[in-house]
Amino acid sequence: MPDALTKPYGMIAEFITANSVLHAAQAVRNAGFRKWDVFTPFPVHGMDRAMGLKNSKVGWFAFLGGVAGYTTGMLMIWFMNTVDYPIVIGGKPMFSPFSAFPPSYELTILFGAFGSLGGMLFLNRLPRLHNPLLKNKRFSLVTHDRFFILIECDDPKYSEVETRKLLEEAGCRHIELIEE
Amino acid sequence: MTTAPMPATVPQTPAELERPLLVANLRSFGWISNRVASLSEGPAPLWWWILFVPSFLALCLLGFCVSYQISTGVGVWGNRHPVMWAWDIVNFVWWIGIGHAGTLISAILFLLRQRWRTAVNRAAEAMTIFAVMCAGIYPALHVGRTWYDYWLFPIPNSNSLWPQFRSPLMWDVFAVSTYFTVSVLFWYMGLVPDLAVMRDRARTRARQFLYGIFALGWTGSNRHWSNYEKAYLILAGLSTPLVLSVHSIVSLDFSVSQLPGWHTTIFPPYFVAGAVFSGFGMVLSLLIPLRKIWKLEDIITMRHIDVMCKVTLATGSIVGYAYSMEFFIAWYSGNPNEGFHFLNRALGPYQWAWIPMVTCNVLVPQLFWIKWFRKNLVAVFIISILVNVGMWFERFVIIVIGLHRDFLTSSWAYYKPTPIDIGTYVGTFGLFFTCFLLFIRFLPMIAISEVKGVTPQSDPHHPLGGAKVAESVPDED
Fold first, then answer.
1. Yes or no, beta carbons of A52 and B175 under 8 Å apart
2. Nearest-CB residue to A48 (from B175, B226, B453)
3. How many domains, chain B?
4. Could you report the per-residue pLDDT of B156-170, keeping only the tens digit for each?
């Protein structure tokens, strides 16, 4: 499929300082792009705001994991000690939420931790084994010391000339087209 | 959908508000990547082999001792009535305590916004994982019939019996296994962006493939960073109550019993403080030589060593306070058994264990009040080793002295370890150092992307991050 190989994916612009990429991200956002992203070697302070990102939803996954863990712990111990094999030990009640608390507490944390890591991976659509960006030699500097902005060709506002002009005005050093 | 526009210029920072830099000599992003990643590239240095071979031999010794113990029985250890918990539980508590500093650094100091933690957190978290692995061996062997270890977990078995959930020993199973799992998750999540660094630097196919698989396709996208940072914050928030609960539950193994010297309410906070204390001792013992050999002085600066010494001093003082409070309560309670136990600790046949405990845990760390000791790496290294020695003796004192003279004088005895006890303990060092040496060989031992994030040039509002500085400080309006 030669057509698929040469299909353009997007335009990447390279920046060298955190400040310049932050200003450029603001300019791209104000221009009304939707399918675009900023790539940085570390999280840049203020970038979420500059890109107009909403608060991450990972917290919900962690919360649901925690609730599931606590419920699992309490229900499991209640079921084992009062339903499946009730056995009187020291004349104490079959089920006590107090002695069942420590294991349930640990399960809350365990499931909550899986929820936050799993939620992060799910929201980021990771693991992703194929990414056109990772084939680009220049882009590999993103984990070293460079900052990049990507504007995808699928974006309704994308135009080869206008977008390039916008990025150049935003102060980038180098622009490249990425193929799918 | 409106945000405040970025100011064109930032005010100049007054000199007295400038903070000392966390990465010395204004190193660039690229320098940090190169410096840290190069440690796990190229052939292994000679010193690495010199350390690895004996570690691996000690690991083989562990394999021998464990096989011998499983095939013969717990009688190969020195545990005899009335000392039925001995080196096995001493070493379990000691190793798991060491792990606590890693989680304190990675989780609690993150929540407290102690940005210096970035230089040491990766190695400390790895230390946690390997220490918990060493710790986990002991209870698994201590039960005697190791092949029934799965009875510890609520898995249906042929007797249709469930574990006893009222027992702190059962809580311990949940606490330690959760602790291990969450520590691994936290550590791995922190590694993902750095594995991407390693992937992008890799030259051979094998390295590209392996780092690439484990980096999960990380690109450094800000949409990803946004979720990542939130997940990191939540994991830190979950690990903080976890680490406090783990050693609290370990201490409940003792304090829920009715034994003089064990049955005290001070145990949970005292054990947590002791755990953090010994863990910082281990972090310092590991990082001071590594920093020297690998010339990481610009990343792990003297300020890092200084603050870690201060944490050691603070937790050591809490431990010292707990020791004295135990003696005070033994006297103040008027309980003759308590009183006897504590006199027996200080003056009994195991006085040789009590004296190094007090010396190494209470007296020696007090030297850190003096700046000279915090600045002298040889002194810090020696003190950090003594802290670990002292904390081992603390567990020995609590467990063995607590048991060897019980309520009936007719059953008093003197406990001695066997060569298998000693071999198993030496073997866990083999396991720990084998894992740690493999870790520093193949994975970035410093959190590269986190360290980049604490440099001044990472801040878009700092002149070094590219912000234009206003000519004069603007007046308040």
1. no
2. B226
3. 1
4. 888 888 998 989 999
Please give the structure tokens belonging to residue B459. 């801040």
In a domain, B301, yes or no: yes
The range of the structural domain enclosing residue B44 comes to 29-154+163-451
Distance CA B278, CA B357 (A): 12
Which of helix, strand or coil describes residue A150?
strand
pLDDT over 50 (residue A76) = yes
The answer to whether the complex's ipTM is over 0.85 is yes
In a domain, B226, yes or no: yes
Whether residue A63 lies inside any domain: the answer is yes
Specify the CATH number for the domain of residue B351. Answer: 1.20.1630.10
Closest-approach residue (CA) in chain A for B170: A103
CA distance B355 to chain A (A): 35
Q: Give the CATH number for residue A42.
A: 3.30.70
Residues 28-57 of A with CB under 8 A from B: 37-53, 55-57
Residues in B touching A38 (Cβ below 8 Å): 221-222
Per the structure, how many domains does chain A have? 2
Query: Residue B394 pLDDT more than 90?
Result: yes
Q: What's the CA gap between B223 and B218, in Å, rounded?
A: 11
pLDDT tens digit sequence for B359-369: 999 999 999 99
Cα B103 to Cα A116: distance, rounded to the nearest angstrom: 17
- The residue range of the domain holding A79 is 58-123
Nearest to B172 by CA among B279, B104, B89: B89
Q: How far apart are CA B394 and CA B211, in angstroms?
A: 42
DSSP classification of residue B104: I
